[in-house]
Amino acid sequence: MPSIARVVVDLSIDREFDYSVPDALKASVQVGSRVIVPFGRGRRTGFVVARPETSDVPTLKPVLDVVGERTYIGEDVIRLARWMSDYYAVPMERAVRTVLPAPVRRRGTSHKKQQVAIPVAVEEAAATGLEKKAPKQALALHYLQKHGPTPVPDLVKACSIGHAAVKGLEAKGFVRIDQVDLLRNPLAGYELIRTGPLPLMPQQAEALEQCRASIDSLTPPVVLLHGVTGSGKTEVYLQAIQHAMDKGKGAIVLVPEISLTPQTVDRFRSRFGEGIAVLHSELSDGERHDEWHRIWRGDARIVIGARSALFAPVQSLGLIVVDEEHEPTYKQDEAPRYHARDVAVMRGRISGCAVVLGSATPAIESYNNCRNGKYHLVSMPHRVDHRQMPSMRVVDMRRQAEQEGKVYIFSRDLVDAIGNRLARAEQTMLFLNRRGYSTSLQCPACGHVAECRQCSVAMTYHKTSHELICHFCGDRQPVPDRCPDPECGDPAFKYAGLGTQRVEEIIRKLFPKARIHRMDSDTMTRKDSYRNVLGDFRTGKIDILVGTQMIAKGLHFPNVTLVGVVYADMSLHVPDFRAAERTFQLLTQVAGRAGRGDVVGEVIVQTYTPHHGAIQAARRLDYDGFADQELAFRREAGYPPFSHLVILTLKGPSETRVRFAGENFMKRLSPLLPASVMSAGPLPAPLARLKGVYRFHIVLRARSAKSMTGPIREVMQGFAWPADV
Ligand code: ADP
Ligand code: ZN
User: In terms of pTM, does the model score above 0.90?
Assistant: First the structure.
């Protein structure tokens, strides 16, 4: 019986290849090994994904060599990668790349080594009269005796001596010098006070009970914790993790990247101390590598991080927590386009561990999974401090526009409310629920696009100068107050190009004395700026914080008593079947920011569609009502969770070639699709042209994902794409 290794080579082809394993390599070739294999006429590196018993191929070529130490990946994560490869229709090699980040995948270990001096024979040294003969060596030895093992560079510096003195000590055998792995700690430099578990409120105790049952016996396998902001979900996570730890198990906590704030991480660190690894996108390659190494060795049993933390090689995983499970940022925006919540549930199933999803506004899909019995729902409807939820006022922006015949960005209600807060030295958050941004301006009410009068092409919106410019003739126009379409004339048009920068400018003019700061992805470029701005806001150095969704997440500022949503409809008018859900979530989340202190908070929501179901449900704090209404709509329209959607995006510099490739692709695909699959396209994507690249969509919809992904993979394998599509 030959020993077989199944390998994905480092090429983006959707196939795996079997090789025989020579006796000499038998011990070192394992699932997860990096290997060199003959491929075509040359050789390639690859990754062992299985050690099957048999192969369909009669004669196998041998594995040539193993590269580096074993990579940090467990069999469960390989199985997860295989599932992702199937479900998201990507080659296994792509899935492996995803579960094993580049710095971790690279050959060998890349720890920074450092020389550390360790005292070994202090008494003997004294007996030889070192003091007199070599005072510098004696000084160093004295230092080591007092401080213990010390990195050589530090020792040299602390004693103001040369390296020769340390070498001298080593030569005499008084000191040993070791090469030690230097772990880069991304959290170094912050001291925290240790916290213990809090006595739980009844609703938390009930929730914890369910989480424990899930950890102990996987019944239920998935718990959905629906708890209003401030209901104490995090404390439940912490105690559930403790329970897993007590059973000798590890845990993964996923948070959306934007809420991976120092505040969140600090809460976990103060409870569990050094046993935590933090994975986020700002880690250097070295830091990332070190964190994985610590997890693999079991030095860190708890991993907290964004999406990719899901693949961390935690030994004997007991629990996965997905906080803010409804967050759109859990969706990866490149292949494989996985949703971290769904992959978490799948990893739970594969690794045999509990999964706890938490949110104040669970995703409609998750809510539906509770209804049909797949998840177990636990509700925490009360705030820990029994403080009232803030009152939400919906301001109808049409009214003021009609009364005064002029359109304002800020209603009088909101301006007055901000003025009041400034007078009382309370803080305000102003919030623009903008998602992405387009280069053309479209009327949110009628869809009219601002076009150039001469060229009849869409004008390009320029954010910095806040004007429209035609890129054909160079004509410039100010952004109109109302929709230019004579049939429509909707005043909300003014908001079409509105960004946080503009809001900041206006608010500065209205309140010249106020201390105002803007927080969005444009201003948050430096590594520490997030921490700094939030620190300034917390200590009262900022009166008004203007921002995007970024400021809506899990932050606690007791002195914020007013939250203003500048234009609630902004997230309603996007071509996305989740637009209403997103709007409801965003409004509920921002509302949760107000009134955490002793004063009841106020939320002012400006809108042109005050009666929209999502806005009204948010005002009433009625999640269930919204979810039921939304599920009815989804069922009617055949949207998820009552179907699966696939979007194929084709891009290229030539419109004709992109369209042509799309048509050819559909010609091959259509005959393979079962009749139950609905398909449309290729059609110009909502953003049909972006930075000189044409974009087309093919949209498929069906009850079964496999009925679409299977045929797509089949066509993909042999499809000859034009080089620039
Ligand atoms: P959520 O995550 O649901 O928004 P948190 O876990 O952040 O809620 O809890 C809100 C606040 O209440 C936090 O400051 C937390 O320390 C505190 N808290 C949570 N549970 C308790 C408890 N059982 N007793 C006292 N304070 C608690
Ligand atoms: Zn219009």
Answer: no
Residues 9, 17: Cα–Cα separation, whole Å:
8
What's the token pair of residue 403?
């009364």
Query: What are 320's strand-pairing partners?
Result: 252, 355
* DSSP structure class, residue 269: H
Please tell me which of 65-74, 240-249, 632-641 the model is most confident about, judged by mean pLDDT.
240-249
What does the alpha-carbon distance between residue 143 and residue 159 come to, in Å, rounded to a whole number? 8
Query: Which residue of 233, 235, 253, 596 sits with most ligand 1 atoms within 8 Å of its CB, as the best mutation to test the pocket?
Result: 235
- Whether the CB-CB separation of 516 and 543 falls below 8 Å is answered with yes
For 528-580, the pLDDT digits (tens) are 577 778 788 888 899 999 887 667 665 667 788 899 998 888 777 776 788 89
Q: Is the pLDDT of residue 91 over 50?
A: yes
State the Cα angle at 375 between 553 and 231, rounded to 5°.
35
Query: What is d(CA 165, CA 150) in angstroms, rounded to the nearest whole number?
Result: 14
Tokens, residue 632: 């009815």
Pocket probe mutation, ligand 1, options 211, 226, 228, 234, max atoms within 8 Å of Cβ: 234
**Contact of 312 with 251, CB cutoff 8 Å:** no
User: Higher confidence at residue 718 or residue 676?
Assistant: 676
Q: What is the pLDDT of residues 466-477, one digit of tens each?
A: 778 776 677 788
Phi-psi region of 173 (alpha: psi -120 to 50; beta: other; left: phi over 0): left
CA end-to-end span of the chain? 46
Give the CA distances from residue 668 to residues 81, 129, 711, in Å, rounded to whole numbers and listed in that order. Answer: 27, 88, 9
Residue keyed to tokens 């340390």: 166
